[in-house]
Amino acid sequence: MARQKIAVVIGANRGNGLEVARQLGALGYRVILTARKKAAGREAAKKLVRVGLNVEFAHLDVTDANSAKDLARHLKKTEGRLDVLVNNAAI
Ligand SMILES: NC(=O)c1ccc[n+]([C@@H]2O[C@H](COP(=O)([O-])OP(=O)(O)OC[C@H]3O[C@@H](n4cnc5c(N)ncnc54)[C@H](OP(=O)(O)O)[C@@H]3O)[C@@H](O)[C@H]2O)c1
After folding, report:
1. pLDDT by residue, tens only, the chain of 91 residues
2. Residue 19 Cα, ligand 1 centroid: separation in angstroms?
3. Is 61 a pocket residue for ligand 1 (Cβ < 6 Å)?
4. Over the Cα atoms of the chain, what is R_g?
5. If residue 85 lies in a helix (H) or strand (E), which one and from where to where?
6. End-to-end Cα distance, the chain
7. Which atom of ligand 1 is nearest to the CA of 13?
8. How far is the CA of 52 from the centre of ligand 1 (A)?
């Protein structure tokens, strides 16, 4: 069986990021849905999990280098690789 591909979507608690996360999930990706607001990110991820998608929330504020390093460490440990990065976050 082919391994499941891993996608990280940045700024995915709402807007385009959330929709991209949904569509990648529907295509069969395991999606790491990131947001700087933890509650909003968790809620968005839960909505996608409820419709059967493989989605996990991870915190990321792109203006905080430590936050980015924490996510990189987390991904290395839990997934070991990354297939797709959607750098969507913006003002
Ligand atoms: N909508 C359009 O018509 C359009 C057209 C062309 C390009 N784009 C681009 O597409 C992207 C998304 O647009 P959108 O309309 O979906 O925007 P949006 O609804 O305002 O969503 C932006 C997302 O980025 C997140 N974000 C902002 N600053 C962040 C930070 N420092 N760290 C992590 N996440 C952060 C926001 O999180 P919070 O909820 O925490 O604020 C939100 O989840 C942007 O890059 C935009 O420039 C959009």
Report:
1. 678 999 999 999 999 999 999 999 999 999 999 999 999 999 999 999 999 999 999 999 999 999 999 999 999 999 999 999 999 998 7
2. 12
3. yes
4. 12
5. strand 84-87
6. 40
7. 43
8. 25
In the chain, where are the structural domains located?
A: 6-87
The residue contributing the CA closest to ligand 1 atom 44 is 90
Mutate to test the pocket of ligand 1, among 10, 13, 16, 86 (most ligand atoms within 8 A of CB): 16
Structure tokens at 75: 């991904």
The topology (CATH level 3) of 6-87 is Rossmann fold (3.40.50)
- C-alpha 83/C-alpha 87 separation (Å) is 13
Which residue's C-alpha comes closest to atom 18 of ligand 1?
A: 15
* Calpha distance 22→19 (Å, rounded): 5
Q: What is the number of residues in the chain? A: 91
Tell me what pLDDT residue 71 has: 97
Q: Which three-class secondary structure state does DSSP give residue 34?
A: strand
